[in-house]
Design brief:
heterodimer; A: mainly alpha; two-stranded antiparallel sheet; 73% helix; globular; B: alpha/beta; 9-stranded mixed β-sheet; 4-stranded mixed β-sheet; 14 helices
């Protein structure tokens, strides 16, 4: 499984794209649900918390250069505990992938294809996603790099063109639901940046020396995008209303009305929304296949694509309604995800330190 | 082996092409334009036979195309008694062949009876929840039968009633006599404490001018409410003034001037023309075009007596002249005019503020600034803004500056027996 590495810019574009793809889904509305009109404070806080966690992630990657994630786990925790630890993210990712697939497909029904069967939309999504996974992570990352300016432009276009509806007074009362809910949400919602854990789960894609810069710059860029979206959204919709839509950015796009000629811009929005969603799904699906292949010590991940696709497709139908999907993905998985995904590198580093030295020392000893 | 791989690849590529050709030609949700009937306006009244009488003004696309189309031929009206708007749409499809669609619905018009009974608050959320309805559609109230009003949406300059109403409801930007009253704004205001709504008032016009032979007295242009404006000709409707909604129910109406003042205080004013008696010659009327010099400065504070609201409005204007021969380009005259205009606007604002306090309806949206008094949503809910506002002390300060005198730098007097050429 030879994969060539991607440069810093591509890596940042790739990571930022897959993290910010969620702004096209219920993310802004969910965040408002935690802190009301002070959701922008949650973005700042959760971003700072993520920056803190990213230090451990980068430390782990730079301590064990050239090793895959399951190898790192097994090197530090031994073959059995290491295997269990390496398997942990797989379960979460499988669930997350299924929910994302369902969420994007259901949202497509809400927005544009109300009478198309859900399964048809899901097959189309999954089909495109499998092609991307088959072509490999480099291609996904490079596609992200190419689409990145367009995705950013689409988000900025929707948020800034809604300026007619902005009412800065709606940002008050400044603390929204209060200080404690903001602090709590700031910690919990650091899981909104979880896609950044690809830094340690697929470390072979990045140059170890660049990992720290990639991580930090990505977080800062994501905070910027999230802030713009949340601030403009909460200025456009008062918080009881802002909690309501499944697709807040789409609702914002529908509200853009700058005279007779600049209106109904949501049609453009759908293109970028679908593209960003496909990149996120493809990336997640690739990561799922590659970890499983590495755990099973398979020479190639491609034979796993079809079986995992069938499992994902079947799991995606488990939640009975779109509300359940939104609830499960935004509250169920996300509220606890940060503990597992940020906890793993911290525990690995801690155990490595307790057992005497980091990976570099160990590999040096072995070489000698 | 390599040849086999190539073959598999070629088959895969052709399979993808075939899949695209078959599936991408359309989808389950596609409709040809000639399969749908585009509703342009919805009229809602309390029902006689069922809960609601719902009227739909439906576009006739072939009559809207081209420059030779005439007003009145571009649409037709249907009214259905039904329990809900959506049911009415389906029931209308028992006699309208094309599937009813709201994707181009520009406005929702409620009868005043429906608005007073709270139907706006009941129906607007579900209408906005429906994927086809847009938040940019306007909401209006009529004191006439909505179906009859819709029947009179017969534009003369456009063939399309939708375009006509889009332009008419946007006129608030230079008349100030109506509000923008977009459905999403009204919906937001229904769900937020400290804001009440004003929706545009549209009524049928009696198309009569006074037959009295006596000359009328000065009456400000915005002192009319829709339906009362003496006019003849053009489309037989009038959109002037607003209906105040409190807790989703219509509780009062505002005339054009009051609506303009509300727009001014809410920061939604663009420009308007003002006519008032000249400060020096009361029988002469002077015309001005006024704009914001700055957006309204509103500060809200809590004192021992209750809430104190300081409202500072700054305008600038362009003198358009009038019956007077006084030269308002001269500084000494200009200052008098500026004071008079400021005094007149201040008086208007104070009257509207008093009306809103009497109605206990904060349609001037001071509550939005009041949100700064507290730090959490819970504190805001506990504050009970509606009660506080009703007894609030509102201090109004208005500044007005004449910036231009239109195209004239100096006003030479009209010559009479007493006044010669160029004499003051």
């Amino acid at each position: 499984m030879e994969v060539s590495k991607i440069g810093e810019r591509e890596a940042i574009a790739y990571l930022v794209t897959i993290v910010i793809a969620k702004v096209f889904l219920a993310y802004p509305a969910v965040l408002v649900g935690y802190a009301a009109n002070a959701a922008w404070l949650v973005v700042l806080l959760s971003g700072l918390v993520t920056l803190f966690f990213i230090n451990f992630v980068t430390k782990l990657v730079t301590s064990f250069p050239g090793k895959s994630f399951p190898e790192v786990c097994q090197t530090i925790l031994g073959p059995y505990f290491g295997l269990v630890t390496a398997c942990l993210p797989i379960l979460g990712m499988l669930l997350e992938e299924s929910l994302l697939l369902r969420n994007f497909s259901e949202s497509m029904l809400v927005v544009a294809l109300p009478e198309t069967p859900l399964s048809v939309v899901m097959v189309c999504f999954l089909g495109a996603c499998l092609v991307a996974v088959y072509l490999g992570i480099e291609n996904i990352a490079r596609a992200s790099y190419i689409s990145f300016p367009f995705t950013l432009a689409a988000i900025l276009c929707i948020t800034l063109l809604s300026f007619n509806a902005w009412k800065p007074d709606l940002l008050f009362p400044i603390l929204g639901e209060g200080l404690f809910p903001i602090l709590k949400a700031g910690l919990i919602r650091s899981s909104d940046y979880l896609e950044l854990v690809n830094l340690y789960i697929i470390p072979f894609l990045f140059y170890p020396k660049q990992v720290k810069r990639i991580g930090q710059k990505s977080v800062v860029m994501v905070i910027g995008v999230f802030l713009v979206v949340i601030l403009t959204y909460t200025m456009s919709f008062p918080f009881p209303v802002a909690e309501e839509p499944y697709l807040p950015l789409y609702t914002m796009a529908r509200g853009v009305y700058l005279g007779h000629f600049i209106q109904r811009i949501e049609a453009i929005f759908v293109i970028f929304w679908v593209f960003a969603g496909l990149l996120l799904l493809s990336s997640g699906f690739y990561v799922l296949c590659i970890i499983l292949a590495q755990i099973l010590k398979l020479p190639d991940y491609k034979p796993l694509i079809s079986p995992l696709a069938i499992i994902t497709f079947a799991l995606a139908f488990a939640p009975p309604s779109l509300s359940d999907v939104v609830y499960l993905s935004n509250y169920g998985v996300r509220e606890w995800g940060w503990l597992i995904y940020y906890g793993i590198p911290i525990i690995l580093l801690l155990v490595a330190r307790l057992r005497g030295g980091d990976g570099q020392n160990e590999s040096t000893q072995k070489e000698s | 082996m390599r040849v086999r791989k190539k073959k598999v690849k070629a088959i895969a590529v052709w399979a993808v092409f075939a899949f695209c050709f078959i599936t991408l030609t359309g989808c389950g949700s596609s409709f040809e334009p000639n399969e749908i009937s585009l509703v342009q306006f919805i009229g809602i009244d309390q029902g006689k036979e069922n809960l609601l009488d719902v009227s739909f003004l439906i576009a006739i696309p072939q009559n809207l195309a081209g420059e030779n189309s005439k007003g009145g031929e571009g649409s037709f009206l249907v009214t259905v008694s039904a329990p809900t708007v959506f049911q009415a749409m389906r029931l209308a499809n028992t006699f309208v062949g094309r599937r009813m669609s709201l994707i181009h619905a520009k406005g929702i018009i409620f009868s005043d009876l429906a608005a007073k009974s709270g139907l706006i608050a009941e129906l607007l959320p579900s209408l906005l929840q429906y994927r086809e309805t847009r938040g940019t559609a306007f909401v209006a109230v009529t004191e006439d039968d909505p179906a009859e009003l819709l029947e009179n949406f017969v534009p003369l300059l456009e063939a399309n009633p939708s375009r006509y109403m889009e332009l008419l409801t946007q006129n608030y930007r230079y008349t100030g006599y109506i509000t923008s009253s977009q459905a999403q704004e009204i919906y937001n205001e229904l769900k937020v404490l400290g804001t009440d709504s004003i929706v545009t008032l549209i009524n049928l016009s009696s198309e009569e001018l006074s037959k009295s032979e006596k000359q009328g007295d000065f009456r400000s242009g915005g002192s009319y409410v829709a339906g009362e404006l003496p006019k003849k000709g053009g489309v037989e409707i009038q959109a002037i003034g607003g209906a105040v909604l409190k807790n989703g129910k219509m509780i009062a109406t505002l005339n054009g001037n009051e609506t303009m003042i509300a727009n001014i205080v809410r920061g939604e004013f663009k420009s308007s023309l003002m006519a008032l008696p000249s400060p020096d010659q009361k029988n002469d009327i002077i015309n001005l075009e006024i704009f914001y010099a700055r957006t309204p400065q509103i500060s809200v504070r809590l004192s021992e007596e209750g809430v104190v609201i300081d409202l500072h409005l700054r305008f600038e204007g362009n003198v358009l002249g009038g019956g007077t021969t006084i030269d308002y380009a001269l500084k000494k005259n200009r200052t008098r005019l500026e004071k008079e205009v400021a005094r007149s606007i201040k008086k208007g604002v104070e009257e509207v503020v008093a009306k809103s306090q009497e109605l206990k309806a904060d349609f001037l949206n001071f509550g939005l600034k009041g949100r700064r008094l507290v730090s959490t949503v819970k504190d805001w809910n506990d504050l009970n803004w509606d009660n506080l506002y009703a007894s609030a002390q509102v201090n109004v300060q208005v500044d007005f500056v004449v910036r231009r005198t239109s195209t004239i730098f100096k006003h030479a007097p009209i010559t009479t027996d007493e006044v010669g050429e160029g004499e003051e």
